[in-house]
Amino acid sequence: xxxxxxxxxxxxxxxxxxxxxxxxxxxxxxxxxxxxxxxxxxxxxxxxxxxxxxxxxxxxxxxxxxxxxxxxxxxxxxxxxxxxxxxx
Length: 88
What we know:
The chain is mostly helical and 88 residues long.
C-alpha cells in the first residue's frame, strides 16, 4: 500500500497499529517467493490484515497468519480441481 493510503487509515486506526500492520505486511511479503510479490498480492494481504485488525486483533503473529491466509486463498483454486476437470 502506498504512503497516502496508510495516511488515510489514521482516521480509523491508531498510529501504533498502522506501524504494526505495515511491519506485518512487510514480513509476510518477504516470506513470499519474489515472483509472488506483486502489487495485487500485497493488496490482498493488506486487505486481510486490515480486516483482522478491524475486528480488534493486535497480535503480530495472528495478523501475520491472517496475511498469509490471503496467499493461500489466492493460490487455492489451482489445487482444488474437481475429478471431472482432472480427467481432461
